[in-house]
Amino acid sequence: MTESLKTEPLKIALAGLGTVGGGVVKLLDANRELITRRAGRPIEVVAINARDRSRDRGFDLNRFDWVDDTTALATRSDVDVVVELIGGSDGPALTLAKATIASGKAFVTANKAMIAHHGLALAQAAQDAGTALKYEAAVAGGIPVIKGLREGAAANVLSQVYGILNGTCNYILTRMEAEGSDFGDVLADAQALGFAEADPSFDVDGVDAAHKLSILASLAFGTRIDFDGVRLGGIRNVLGGDIAQARALGFCVRLVGLAEADASGLFQRVHPCLVPLGHPLAHVQGAMNAVVAEGNFVGRLFFEGRGAGEGPTASAVVADLIDVARGEVGPAFAMPVASLAAPETADAGARRERSYLRFTVADRPGVLAEITAAMRDAGVSIESMIQRGEAPDGGVLLVMTTHEGPARAVVAALERLEGSPSMTGKPMWMPILDV
Amino acid sequence: MTESLKTEPLKIALAGLGTVGGGVVKLLDANRELITRRAGRPIEVVAINARDRSRDRGFDLNRFDWVDDTTALATRSDVDVVVELIGGSDGPALTLAKATIASGKAFVTANKAMIAHHGLALAQAAQDAGTALKYEAAVAGGIPVIKGLREGAAANVLSQVYGILNGTCNYILTRMEAEGSDFGDVLADAQALGFAEADPSFDVDGVDAAHKLSILASLAFGTRIDFDGVRLGGIRNVLGGDIAQARALGFCVRLVGLAEADASGLFQRVHPCLVPLGHPLAHVQGAMNAVVAEGNFVGRLFFEGRGAGEGPTASAVVADLIDVARGEVGPAFAMPVASLAAPETADAGARRERSYLRFTVADRPGVLAEITAAMRDAGVSIESMIQRGEAPDGGVLLVMTTHEGPARAVVAALERLEGSPSMTGKPMWMPILDV
Questions:
Q1: Are the C-beta atoms of A222 and B34 separated by less than 8 Å?
Q2: Could B303 and A302 be called an inter-chain contact, meaning their C-beta atoms sit closer than 8 Å?
Q3: Does the annotation flag A311 for ligand binding?
Q4: Domain B348-432 has what CATH class?
Q5: Given CB atoms, is B339 within the 8 Å cutoff of chain A?
Q6: Chain B stretch 377-396, residues whose beta carbon is closer than 8 A to a beta carbon of chain A
Q7: Which of B142, B300, B331 sits opposite A298 (nearest CB)?
C-alpha cells in the first residue's frame, strides 16, 4: 500500500447505538486528532444502524447514513469495517458477522456470547476471506487482555489464566463485603443504580464470565473455544455470613473464572472462590475486572481495569479499529483455526484443591458428628471448622475448610448429607484459590 | 506474501549471550512448537555473537554460527532480524542497531538506555528503511506495557502514565518496609543475592527508571522522547524511619516514575513517593514492576509482572519476534517520528501536590519554631506533624505532611533551612501520590 493510499480514512459502519455504540462515536469525535496520528489515517463512521432512530443519543445522527437493514451494512462499497454492537449470540449480530466477513470486510465486535459460541466458525470464515475478525471489547472491557494474551504473552506456554471477568458480580460481592449485607439486598440496589440488569441471570449465574473465560482459554492455550466445557456456578447462594467467615480465615470471596491446561486436559470453571487477602485479585474492588496469566517464562502477569461501560468498551473497540487501520491483523485466535488443539475436558473430580464448605444446620446435638462422619467416609480431611453466626433461615452457620484433596471426595460427602434433616438449607461449596 | 513463503523460518542473529540472551535461546527451544503455531512459522537463531565463547551457558553453542564481529551480524544474508542484548546506550549496541536498520533488517532490543537516548533517530532510520524497530523488553521486563500503551490504550488521550519501573529499588524498599531496616543494610544484602549490581547507581539513583519512563511518556502522549527532561531522585536517602512514619500516616514508600502531559507541558519525574496503602502500586512487592495509565475513555489501566530477569525479559524479546514473524510491525513509537510532538517541559515548581518532609534535627528547644516559621514564610501549609523516632545520626526525626500546594514553595522553605545548625542532616522531601 502506498503512503498516499494510507491517508484515506478507514470507513466504519456501526450496528447498534446503545451505550457502547454511542461511546464509540463520542470517542472517535473526542480523540480524533490523536487517533489519526496513531492509526496513520482518520477513522470515520459513515453508516449506522440501530433499533430506534428517534432516541436522543447526545450527538447528531444526521452526520451518518442511516441504514434500516442491519445486514445491508455488510455490503456497502463505502465501508471498510463493520462494528457490531447489537449483542446476542445469534440473530442479527451473527447474520451481520457472516455477511460482513463474506464480503471481505473487517469485522469488529464486543459480543462475547457470539464469539464464545461462533468464534471459531467466524475466525475460519475470516481466514478464508483474508480479512480480520477482532473482539478486544468482548472480554474485560477496556483492559487489552485479548492483545495481552494473543501477542504480549505469545512466547509462553501458559498453564493458567484466571480472573474477575464480571463487573456486576464483583460489584455485588465487594458491596456485600463492605456492608455485611446479603445477596438479595445488594442486587436490588445494584439494579436500581444500573450496575445490574433487570434480569441479572447472565451475570450472577456466571454465564457472562463463562463466555469470556472460554475465549481467554482458547487464546492462552492455543485450543478450540469450548464454552460448553465451562463448569458454572454463580453467586446467588453466597451469604453475607460466608464473606464474614472467609475474612476471618484470611480470604475474600470473588467470582473467579479459571482455566488450566495440562496433560490431563482442559479445565474451565466459573465459581465463587475464596481468594487469599494477599493475592492481587483480592484488591479488585467494585465493577473492576482483572486477569492473571501464568507463563512458563514470564511468570505471573496481572492486568486490571474497568470491565464494562461506555468509555472502557469503546476504548477497546477503537483499539481494534486502530489495529485494522495499521494493518496489524493476524489470525483471530492467534493462529490458524486448524492449528487450534481440541483437548480433552479434564476430569474435574480428580482436581486437587482446598475447599470451603458452609452448612446451615439445626441447632441440636449430633449434627456435627453427622457431618464429620460424612467427611471421613468420603475421605475429606478437615483443616479448620467454625460454628458461629446465624443463617438467614434461622439455622446455625457451620463453616469448614478442607485440606487439599480431590474434588470428587467433597462432592461425595455433600451427596451423602443431601436430604439430612439436620440441614436447614443447601450447603455451599467454594474452592480456595491456591495460586 | 504467499502461504508457502510464510512457512520459511524467521532467522535470528543474537548479539549478547548474558542472562537475557541465554534466556531467549532457552525459551525458543522450550516453547518451539507453540511459538511456531503462534508466529505462523518457526523462529530460529542462526548466528550469535558474545564476548566470551568458552563460557558454559547451559546449551550447545555449536548449533549456531559464531560471529566475532558484532556488526557483521547486521549484513548477513541469512538473517531476517537482529536481536541486541549487549546493553549500553552507545558503543557496539548502537553501531549494531544502525547497521542492522541500514541493511533493512528488523531490529529487536531490550536496551532501555539506547532507546531513551537514540530511540527517535533509530525509529526514523527504521521508518526510512521500511523495517521494524521493537523494544518491548526495554521497559518493565515481561509486562507487555509497550504494546499495552502503543496499541491497547491507543484510542485514548492519556493524562498520566506512572509506575514502579525498577525492580532493584522496589526490592530494597519493600525489604526495608518488612524488616524495618535502613537502605545500606538491605543494599548490601541485595547485592549478595544478585538483586542489585556491584555498582548500583543506575538503579538506586533512578537513572534506569528514568530511561523507561521517558520511553513510556513518548508512547503515552505521542511526544518525542525527552530523557533529559526527567527530574531525578533516588532512594539512597530513604530511611527506615521514613517508611515507618509513612506507614503510620497510611502510606508506603515506592520509587515512582510519573509522567503527565497537559496544556502546560510535559512533566516527568522519578522520585521516591508516598503511595496510599489502598492504591494498586502499594501492593507491588519485591522485584515486581507495575505500570498505571490513565486514559480519557478507558479510565485506569494497571499492568503488573516481573520487571527483569532471564525468563520475563526473554518473554518480551520473543513476543517482539513473533510480531515480526506475523508482520505486525508498525511505527516504533506508534506514529511516524515526524508526528511526535515536542512539548514544553512543564514548570515543575508550579505543580501542585502534597508533600512529605522529614528533618533530622537536634533535640533542643526552638527547632520546631524555626522550621514552622520557614514553612509559613514560604507559604507551605502543614497538614500533620510527628516528632518521634531517632535518626541514624542520633538526631530526632521530625516528619510533616503538607496540604496541596506548589512545589516551589516547599523548595523555598527547604532552601531557607539549609545550613541551619538545628539540622543534623539533609532534609528528605517526598511527594505524596494523590491519584
A1: yes
A2: yes
A3: no
A4: alpha beta
A5: yes
A6: none
A7: B142
Q: How far apart are CA A219 and CA B94, in angstroms?
A: 36
Helix (H, G, I), strand (E, B) or coil at A106: strand
* Architecture in CATH of A154-306: 2-Layer Sandwich (3.30)
pLDDT (tens digit, 0 to 9) for every residue of chain A, 435 residues total? 334 445 799 999 999 999 999 999 999 999 999 999 999 999 999 999 998 888 888 888 899 999 999 999 999 999 999 999 999 999 999 999 999 999 999 999 999 999 999 999 999 999 999 999 999 999 999 999 999 999 999 999 999 999 999 999 999 999 999 999 999 999 999 999 888 899 999 999 999 999 999 999 999 999 999 999 999 999 999 999 999 999 999 999 999 999 999 989 999 999 999 999 999 999 999 999 999 999 999 999 999 999 999 999 999 999 999 999 999 888 999 999 999 999 899 999 999 999 999 999 998 889 999 999 999 999 999 999 988 777 777 788 999 999 999 999 999 999 999 989 999 989 999 999 987
CB-CB under 8 Å, A154 with B322: yes
In the CATH hierarchy, which fold is given to the domain comprising A3-138?
Answer: Rossmann fold (3.40.50)
* Catalytic site includes residue B105: no
**Considering only alpha carbons, which residue of chain A is nearest residue B37?**
A335
**Cα–Cα distance, A309 to A287 (Å, whole number):** 10
Q: Name the residue with cell 509462553.
A: A156
- Taking the C-alpha atoms of residue A312 and residue A306, their distance in angstroms, rounded to an integer, is 6
- Contact between B335 and B125 under an 8 Å Cβ cutoff? The reply is no
By the 8 A CB rule, do B247 and B389 touch? no
Cα–Cα distance for residue pair B257/A430, rounded to 1 Å: 40
Could you give the CA distance from residue A111 to residue B152 in angstroms, rounded to a whole number? Answer: 18
What single-letter amino acid sits at B224? R
CA-nearest of A107, A113, A53 to A84 is A107
Whether B126 contacts B101, CB under 8 Å: yes
Whether domain B145-306 has CATH 1.10.3720.10: no
Pick from B68, B20, B18: nearest CA to B47: B68
Residue ranges of E strands in A99-247: 106-109, 133-134, 158-164, 230-232
- Do the chains contact at B297 and A304, CB–CB below 8 Å? no
Is B21's Cβ below 8 Å from some Cβ in A?
Answer: no
* CA distance to A56, B21, B94, B100, B308, per residue, from B113 (Å): 52, 17, 10, 18, 15
Q: Write down the ipTM of this complex.
A: 0.95
Residue A286 Rama label (left phi>0; alpha psi -120 to 50; beta): left
Residue whose grid cell is 480428580: A350
Q: What residues does each domain of chain A span?
A: 3-138, 154-306, 348-432
**B333, closest residue in chain A (CA to CA):** A38
For residue B367 the three cell numbers come to: 527547632
Give the side-chain half-sphere CA count within 13 A for B109: 29
Any known ligand binding at B197?
A: yes
Residues in chain B: 435
